[in-house]
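Continuing the batch. This is chain 6 of the set; chains 1 through 5 are on the previous pages. Same settings as before, nothing changed between runs. Recording input and output for traceability.
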Amino acid sequence: MLELETGRDDPVRRPGRPRAEDIDDRLIAATVELLIESEDGAPLTVAAIVARSGVSRAALYRRWISREELIAAALDSVRSDVQMLDTGDLLADIITAYTIDLTSTPRGFDQLLRKRLVLALEDRELQLTYWRAHVSRRRVPVAAALRRGIDSGLLRTDLDIDAALDLIAGVYYYQMVVRGERTTDPETQRRVHDAIRMLWRGMLADREDGASPLGHSGLP
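Output for chain 6:
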């Protein structure tokens, strides 16, 4: 007899039978709720997630190989993939890619960002898991765009792409960790965009004719 909780092996879905994506959503939702509710710093257990979601432990481990993998997925669930446009204005495209859409920010967005910082500092395994599974993947389209900028002659040939991405992301983290600002606040986003524009000036290639290489950079 097929297990009713997977929904993967039977092409015919019986009434009331949960789909695989239903189970995934329940596990993520339960983990997010528990993360937002937790105040005492106690570690979030698999038992608590199972109890809240109503999904079996076996089903959980068929989807995520560890507690850290599931928590990382839950922490990242309020984030969207980076959409790197190619409008011909690379700076504007980068700013757009990093700008948070204030009209569609999901519940718990800022809380989960802060929770991730706390948990990552306390749990190096979770920190590395989150980096490998989510953060490093999100950087790929922006890194590719910067490489195109180098190839086109807009950006300097010795640009360290990883360092540039660290600096851009670091501006955002400074707002949360040091200044205590909300990343969704319009004034915070304005300050971040100004900082990225300053960084951009150091990324641009020098022109032999002495002319400004700004082109369609979005800079004044």
